[in-house]
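Subject: for your reference before the review

Hello V.,

The reviewers asked for a structural picture of the protein, and I figured it would be easier to keep everything in one thread rather than splitting it across files. Below is the amino acid sequence we used in the manuscript, unchanged from the supplementary table.
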Amino acid sequence: MKTPIFVRSFSEQEREALQAGLRSKNAFTLRRCQMLLASSRGEYAPRIAQSLGCGQQTVRDAIHDFNQRGVDALFAKSSRPRRTREAFDEESAQALREMLHRSPREFGYDTSLWTLEMAAQAAFEKGLTHRRVSGETVRATLSRLLGVRWMRAKRWITSPDPLYERKKLGWQNLLEQLLFKPAEIGFGVPPEA
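And here is what came back from the structure prediction:
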């Protein structure tokens, strides 16, 4: 069993803010006020959690937060990730950009189009990051450090066949001849005499 934790004693302004928070339209503020006032009445965290239908750790976190930040704890902090800046430095961001200019097939993937998640996995496997990052971190890094917006790739007809380009040019030449010079090849209507 964890050590019982209680909220510190309130100042008059804090008590007024907590009472006003009970009438708040913001669910986060309302719930925090209920937790903190119940704790000030001497209720234990498990009992508060049971009566409010939340986790015991949620109540403990609210009490710790209020004890540290005061009334500011009644408002939700930003949910924005705080670790995107340390995932890639300038050098590894440039290496990421160079990696994305190559085909995913070169890295063992069965597709010719990069996705953000696939780029994050490949960056980790190649050693560009020390830990596996999310696709959103890759997108934010490209935007912040390199000024590049991630856009979904267009599907191009490609093939892993080494002779693909030569075969493609051969078909294109044949199609051009059929469309623009059918009489020379022997197809189509014979020229009038």
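For the response letter, the relevant points are probably these. The chain is about 55% helix and 0% strand. The CA atoms of residues 66 and 73 lie 5 Å apart.

Happy to draft the paragraph if you're swamped.

O.
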